[in-house]
Amino acid sequence: MIGEIELLSVATSLPEPALDLHYLHYPLDVPEGAGELELELAYDKVMDVVQIYAVLLDPAGTFRGHVQCPGGPGPRRLVIRVGRHDATPGCVPGPVPPGRWTVRLDLDRHKRAAPYELTVRARPAGEPATAAAPTVPRERPAPGEVTRGGAGWYRGELHSHSHHSDGRRPVADLVRAARDARLDFLAVTDHFTSAHWDDLAAHDDELVLLRSMELTSHCGHANLHGLSRWVDTYVDRPEHTMTQVAADVHEQGGLLCVNHAFSGDQAWRRFDTPWDRVDLIEIAHLQQGANNDAQIGLWDRLLTAGHRVIGVAGSDCHDPHDPAQALGQVVTVVHAEEASRAGIVAGLRAGRVAVWRGADLDMRVDGAPMGSSTGRGRVRVEVDVRADEPVVVFVLRDGLIIGVVPAGDRPGEWQRIAVEDVIDRPGYYRAEAHADPGRHDPRFWASSMRDHSSLRAAGNPVWIR
Asked: Over 165-233, what HEC string results?
């Protein structure tokens, strides 16, 4: 049995910024008999200039934990603690094997040199605070998933964060908020980690809880849904790319979603992205404002290039108690065969999916539902819409408007509008519903003005073969 020993102690400065410098690595040798490791990183956070995350990898290269630095600027002390029986948020409890471990410093914002201190200590194994059942390893799917309903429409949130990354609340608060918002499914997408999955297990009887995480690179963020094991999301190194991430996600039966593609330093700038392996893209983000217009524009460009990418919504909620981030304001609506994790993931993949921001929407082209295909020629596009306010339905072919039809005479009831068209080549149709500006706004009716602020619903494509 060992006593407490110091394995690593560094007091130095970040190097000068460089385009290809994203991580710093510190190896350390953990002796036999260690039952707990504690890492401490201290530095002064400068918003969007100096922001550092710490990551701990075991001798097999397996992720054991990370810590971020949410909140404002100033001196920060970040701590990772992993042991056999427990761990700090964002970290994975379990045995502490001897051998060469690695500390990775993720230079999330690195725009100038800055001092920092890094210390790692080992301690002997202690007793668990309370008797507990053995932790189920995260790389195994949880048994006995409950199916709550048959084929139908299900409403949910695909982007949220708990205290396991940079969220302010525990998983239980997010689940409670999703239930209060009458959502059917929830994805907690903590950055880098799967540590929150164990917390989800305590709420499996309340709603469908997807196993998800957020890839958080220096050139963009992406949610990974429907996982059964942790995915290596550290793609800011040449030997590990988005192609490998997509392959790992799909091997697990999961989905890859590009997030907030025009969000400043977090914008999607991964030019190695294999778009034919991207399943979903955020087209309506609660906190992105006018960037949503660019996101829909990117989506149409991908669709016209032949990529079958499904448009979804996300609030990116970090605090469900904050009214500006409250769940239920922007919702992804999925037609699934059953209300289960597998059912929701399959429904998202199939593409009969709509974004709700106050209106429900469904569409068929010659009877073919969203996400499917039909033949070219003379076609009939039928859009069903329901809203509590007058709306205008836009029908688009290959990203261009071919029909603008008011649907405001029966608020709160389903209404159907139809547009006839002729298409003689492969392409796609999709539909949007926007708030009706009234009959006295000639700018709208002359130029078909619409944007993120007027959007009430957006449906996914029906493709033309």
From this structure: CCCCCCHHHHHHHHHHCCCCEEEECCECCCCCHHHHHCCCCCCEEEECEEEEECCEEEEEECCCCCCCC
Which H/E stretch holds residue 394? strand 391-397
pLDDT in tens, 273-312: 999 999 999 999 999 999 999 999 999 999 999 999 999 9
Give the C-alpha distances (Å, rounded to integers) separating 15 from 116, 278, 283. Answer: 11, 35, 38
Cα–Cα distance measured from residue 406 to residue 65, given in angstroms and rounded to the nearest whole number:
52
The C-alpha angle with vertex 208 and arms to 178 and 316, in degrees rounded to 5, equals 45
Distance CA 239, CA 91 (A): 24
Domain locations in the chain as residue ranges: 5-124, 152-356, 361-464
pLDDT at residue 258 tops 50: yes
Q: Which two tokens stand for residue 420?
A: 């006839």
CA dihedral 97, 103, 104, 108 (to 10 degrees): 120
Q: Is the pTM of this model over 0.90?
A: yes
153 near 334, Cβ under 8 Å? Answer: yes
Q: Give the tokens for residue 210.
A: 């997807």
- What 3-state class would DSSP assign to 148? coil
- Rg of the chain taking only CA atoms, in angstroms: 24
Which secondary structure element, helix H or strand E, spans residue 250, and what is its range?
Answer: helix 242-251
Q: Which CATH superfamily, name and number, covers 152-356?
A: Metal-dependent hydrolases (3.20.20.140)
Which fold would CATH assign to domain 5-124? Jelly Rolls (2.60.120)
The first and second tokens of residue 218, run together, are 């220096």
Q: Kindly tell me if the per-residue pLDDT of 17 is higher than 50.
A: yes
**Three-class secondary structure of residue 89 per DSSP:** coil
Contact 298, 326 (CB under 8 A): no
CATH architecture type of domain 361-464: Sandwich (2.60)
In three-state secondary structure terms, 127 is coil
The amino acid sitting at 416 is R
Q: What is the dihedral of CA 95, 96, 98, 102, to 10 degrees?
A: 140
- CA-to-CA separations, 339 to 154, 189, 392, in angstroms, rounded: 7, 19, 31
Give residue for tokens 């002796």.
31
Residue 455 tokens read as 């959007």
CA 170 to chain centre: 17
Q: Which residue has the tokens 């059964």?
A: 228
Q: Which two tokens stand for residue 328?
A: 């239920």
